[in-house]
Design a protein that fits this description.
single chain; mainly alpha; hydrolase; Hypothetical protein af1432; HD/PDEase_dom; hydrolase activity; 0% strand; 11 helices; HD_domain
Length: 242
Protein backbone atom coordinates (compact mmCIF):
# COMPACT_ATOMS: atom_id res chain seq x y z
CA UNK A 1 0.00 0.00 0.00
CA UNK A 2 1.31 3.45 -0.90
CA UNK A 3 2.92 5.03 2.20
CA UNK A 4 0.88 8.27 2.40
CA UNK A 5 -2.40 6.45 1.85
CA UNK A 6 -1.50 3.92 4.56
CA UNK A 7 -0.65 6.75 6.95
CA UNK A 8 -4.01 8.43 6.33
CA UNK A 9 -5.92 5.18 6.84
CA UNK A 10 -4.15 4.50 10.11
CA UNK A 11 -4.80 8.08 11.18
CA UNK A 12 -8.51 7.87 10.47
CA UNK A 13 -8.84 4.44 12.07
CA UNK A 14 -7.05 5.65 15.21
CA UNK A 15 -9.44 8.62 15.39
CA UNK A 16 -12.39 6.22 15.19
CA UNK A 17 -11.00 4.15 18.05
CA UNK A 18 -10.74 7.27 20.18
CA UNK A 19 -14.15 8.55 19.11
CA UNK A 20 -15.85 5.28 20.06
CA UNK A 21 -13.89 5.06 23.35
CA UNK A 22 -12.34 1.75 22.34
CA UNK A 23 -9.03 3.44 23.17
CA UNK A 24 -8.34 6.47 25.34
CA UNK A 25 -4.67 7.14 24.57
CA UNK A 26 -3.25 8.28 21.25
CA UNK A 27 -0.30 5.90 21.30
CA UNK A 28 -2.51 2.85 21.90
CA UNK A 29 -5.01 3.92 19.23
CA UNK A 30 -2.23 4.52 16.71
CA UNK A 31 -0.64 1.07 17.08
CA UNK A 32 -3.96 -0.77 17.28
CA UNK A 33 -5.12 0.93 14.08
CA UNK A 34 -1.86 0.06 12.35
CA UNK A 35 -2.17 -3.61 13.29
CA UNK A 36 -5.79 -3.68 12.09
CA UNK A 37 -5.01 -2.14 8.69
CA UNK A 38 -1.79 -3.88 7.69
CA UNK A 39 0.15 -6.97 8.68
CA UNK A 40 3.33 -5.43 7.29
CA UNK A 41 5.90 -3.79 9.52
CA UNK A 42 5.34 -0.04 9.99
CA UNK A 43 8.10 1.95 11.67
CA UNK A 44 7.10 4.63 14.19
CA UNK A 45 8.18 7.53 11.97
CA UNK A 46 5.74 6.39 9.27
CA UNK A 47 2.77 6.48 11.65
CA UNK A 48 0.51 9.54 11.97
CA UNK A 49 1.38 12.04 14.67
CA UNK A 50 -0.84 12.91 17.64
CA UNK A 51 -1.74 16.15 15.89
CA UNK A 52 -2.84 14.37 12.71
CA UNK A 53 -4.99 11.96 14.72
CA UNK A 54 -6.45 14.80 16.78
CA UNK A 55 -7.45 16.66 13.60
CA UNK A 56 -9.07 13.52 12.23
CA UNK A 57 -10.89 13.09 15.54
CA UNK A 58 -12.10 16.66 15.36
CA UNK A 59 -13.42 15.96 11.87
CA UNK A 60 -15.31 12.94 13.15
CA UNK A 61 -16.82 14.82 16.08
CA UNK A 62 -17.74 17.91 14.05
CA UNK A 63 -19.53 15.90 11.39
CA UNK A 64 -21.31 13.75 14.00
CA UNK A 65 -20.38 10.45 12.41
CA UNK A 66 -21.93 7.28 13.82
CA UNK A 67 -20.04 5.40 16.51
CA UNK A 68 -20.06 2.10 14.56
CA UNK A 69 -16.89 1.28 12.60
CA UNK A 70 -16.99 2.54 9.03
CA UNK A 71 -15.99 0.50 5.99
CA UNK A 72 -12.33 0.68 5.05
CA UNK A 73 -12.95 2.74 1.92
CA UNK A 74 -14.39 5.59 4.00
CA UNK A 75 -10.95 6.22 5.49
CA UNK A 76 -9.98 7.72 2.14
CA UNK A 77 -12.07 10.82 2.78
CA UNK A 78 -9.41 12.02 5.25
CA UNK A 79 -6.76 13.06 2.77
CA UNK A 80 -4.44 15.89 1.92
CA UNK A 81 -4.88 18.16 -1.10
CA UNK A 82 -1.66 17.64 -3.02
CA UNK A 83 -2.44 20.66 -5.17
CA UNK A 84 -2.52 23.11 -2.25
CA UNK A 85 -0.26 26.10 -2.86
CA UNK A 86 2.04 27.72 -0.32
CA UNK A 87 -0.55 30.25 0.84
CA UNK A 88 -3.05 27.46 1.49
CA UNK A 89 -0.48 25.59 3.56
CA UNK A 90 0.32 28.73 5.53
CA UNK A 91 -3.36 29.37 6.16
CA UNK A 92 -3.95 25.77 7.23
CA UNK A 93 -1.82 26.23 10.33
CA UNK A 94 -4.60 28.33 11.85
CA UNK A 95 -7.02 25.43 11.32
CA UNK A 96 -4.48 23.21 13.06
CA UNK A 97 -4.33 25.64 15.97
CA UNK A 98 -8.12 25.46 16.24
CA UNK A 99 -8.06 21.67 16.15
CA UNK A 100 -5.67 21.64 19.09
CA UNK A 101 -7.41 24.35 21.09
CA UNK A 102 -11.12 23.64 20.71
CA UNK A 103 -11.18 20.47 22.88
CA UNK A 104 -9.28 22.21 25.69
CA UNK A 105 -12.41 23.67 27.25
CA UNK A 106 -13.17 20.12 28.46
CA UNK A 107 -9.83 19.79 30.28
CA UNK A 108 -10.35 20.78 33.91
CA UNK A 109 -7.36 22.10 35.86
CA UNK A 110 -6.26 21.68 39.46
CA UNK A 111 -8.22 24.26 41.44
CA UNK A 112 -5.32 24.87 43.81
CA UNK A 113 -3.00 26.10 41.04
CA UNK A 114 -5.59 27.06 38.40
CA UNK A 115 -8.68 28.54 40.04
CA UNK A 116 -9.77 29.96 36.67
CA UNK A 117 -11.17 26.59 35.58
CA UNK A 118 -10.57 24.94 32.21
CA UNK A 119 -7.45 24.78 30.05
CA UNK A 120 -8.81 26.82 27.14
CA UNK A 121 -9.84 29.67 29.42
CA UNK A 122 -6.33 29.69 30.91
CA UNK A 123 -4.74 29.79 27.45
CA UNK A 124 -7.00 32.64 26.35
CA UNK A 125 -6.07 34.59 29.49
CA UNK A 126 -2.37 34.10 28.81
CA UNK A 127 -2.90 35.24 25.22
CA UNK A 128 -4.71 38.41 26.34
CA UNK A 129 -1.89 39.30 28.73
CA UNK A 130 0.68 38.60 26.02
CA UNK A 131 -1.24 40.72 23.51
CA UNK A 132 -1.36 43.64 25.97
CA UNK A 133 2.42 43.44 26.28
CA UNK A 134 3.53 42.54 22.72
CA UNK A 135 0.59 42.97 20.28
CA UNK A 136 2.97 43.07 17.27
CA UNK A 137 4.94 39.88 18.07
CA UNK A 138 3.25 36.96 16.30
CA UNK A 139 5.69 34.31 17.56
CA UNK A 140 5.29 35.46 21.15
CA UNK A 141 1.48 35.49 20.89
CA UNK A 142 1.32 32.05 19.29
CA UNK A 143 3.53 30.63 22.03
CA UNK A 144 1.26 32.21 24.66
CA UNK A 145 -1.84 30.69 23.07
CA UNK A 146 -0.48 27.19 22.39
CA UNK A 147 1.94 26.63 25.27
CA UNK A 148 -0.30 24.09 27.03
CA UNK A 149 -1.95 22.19 24.16
CA UNK A 150 -0.23 18.94 25.19
CA UNK A 151 -2.35 18.80 28.36
CA UNK A 152 -5.26 17.96 26.08
CA UNK A 153 -3.27 15.19 24.39
CA UNK A 154 -1.20 13.38 27.04
CA UNK A 155 -1.67 14.45 30.68
CA UNK A 156 1.22 12.19 31.75
CA UNK A 157 3.85 13.90 29.56
CA UNK A 158 2.11 17.05 28.45
CA UNK A 159 5.21 19.10 27.61
CA UNK A 160 6.57 16.48 25.22
CA UNK A 161 3.10 16.18 23.69
CA UNK A 162 2.98 19.95 23.25
CA UNK A 163 6.34 20.02 21.49
CA UNK A 164 5.40 17.09 19.24
CA UNK A 165 2.16 18.82 18.28
CA UNK A 166 3.76 22.17 17.52
CA UNK A 167 7.12 21.44 15.91
CA UNK A 168 5.76 21.47 12.34
CA UNK A 169 3.13 24.22 12.66
CA UNK A 170 4.89 27.08 14.48
CA UNK A 171 8.05 29.03 13.77
CA UNK A 172 11.38 28.00 15.37
CA UNK A 173 11.21 31.11 17.55
CA UNK A 174 7.69 30.34 18.82
CA UNK A 175 8.79 26.75 19.40
CA UNK A 176 11.77 27.99 21.45
CA UNK A 177 9.45 29.99 23.71
CA UNK A 178 7.24 26.96 24.38
CA UNK A 179 10.17 24.58 24.74
CA UNK A 180 11.90 26.71 27.37
CA UNK A 181 8.87 27.99 29.29
CA UNK A 182 8.99 25.19 31.93
CA UNK A 183 12.68 25.91 32.50
CA UNK A 184 11.91 29.59 33.05
CA UNK A 185 9.29 28.66 35.64
CA UNK A 186 11.81 26.42 37.38
CA UNK A 187 14.24 29.31 37.50
CA UNK A 188 11.61 31.40 39.26
CA UNK A 189 10.97 28.52 41.67
CA UNK A 190 14.69 28.11 42.36
CA UNK A 191 14.65 24.44 41.37
CA UNK A 192 17.21 24.62 38.56
CA UNK A 193 20.83 25.69 38.43
CA UNK A 194 22.98 28.61 37.35
CA UNK A 195 23.90 27.14 33.97
CA UNK A 196 20.30 27.15 32.74
CA UNK A 197 19.85 30.68 34.07
CA UNK A 198 22.88 31.89 32.14
CA UNK A 199 21.75 30.11 28.97
CA UNK A 200 18.31 31.68 28.98
CA UNK A 201 19.45 35.10 30.16
CA UNK A 202 22.03 35.25 27.37
CA UNK A 203 19.49 34.36 24.69
CA UNK A 204 18.26 37.23 22.51
CA UNK A 205 14.66 36.44 23.53
CA UNK A 206 15.47 35.88 27.19
CA UNK A 207 13.48 38.91 28.36
CA UNK A 208 10.47 37.89 26.25
CA UNK A 209 10.61 34.40 27.76
CA UNK A 210 10.49 35.93 31.26
CA UNK A 211 7.50 37.97 30.18
CA UNK A 212 5.77 34.87 28.79
CA UNK A 213 6.32 33.07 32.09
CA UNK A 214 4.74 35.99 33.95
CA UNK A 215 1.75 35.95 31.61
CA UNK A 216 1.40 32.20 32.20
CA UNK A 217 1.51 32.66 35.98
CA UNK A 218 -0.91 35.58 35.94
CA UNK A 219 -3.39 34.03 33.51
CA UNK A 220 -5.26 32.22 36.26
CA UNK A 221 -7.96 34.64 37.37
CA UNK A 222 -11.58 33.43 37.65
CA UNK A 223 -13.96 35.57 35.62
CA UNK A 224 -11.33 37.59 33.73
CA UNK A 225 -12.72 38.87 30.40
CA UNK A 226 -11.10 37.26 27.36
CA UNK A 227 -11.66 37.22 23.62
CA UNK A 228 -13.34 34.20 22.09
CA UNK A 229 -11.19 31.59 20.41
CA UNK A 230 -12.51 32.64 16.99
CA UNK A 231 -11.62 36.27 17.72
CA UNK A 232 -8.11 35.25 18.77
CA UNK A 233 -7.51 33.22 15.61
CA UNK A 234 -8.87 36.10 13.51
CA UNK A 235 -6.44 38.48 15.22
CA UNK A 236 -3.50 36.16 14.50
CA UNK A 237 -4.55 35.74 10.86
CA UNK A 238 -4.68 39.50 10.39
CA UNK A 239 -1.31 39.92 12.13
CA UNK A 240 0.24 37.32 9.80
CA UNK A 241 -1.05 39.18 6.74
CA UNK A 242 0.44 42.52 7.78
Amino acid sequence: MEADKLRRKICYAAAQLLNTRQETRFVAARWRAARAITSSYVDSESLPTDLEIRMALQQLVSTVLPAEPLPAESYDQFSDDDSADESDLSESRFDQYLALLEPMDRVRLNRDTHPEGDLLYHSLQVFELAKDARPWDEDFLIAALLHDVGKGIDPFDNHTATLNALHEIVSPRAFWFVENLPTQHRLYDGTIGVRARRRLTAHEDGEELKLLARCDSEGRVPGRPVSSLDEVICFLRELAWE
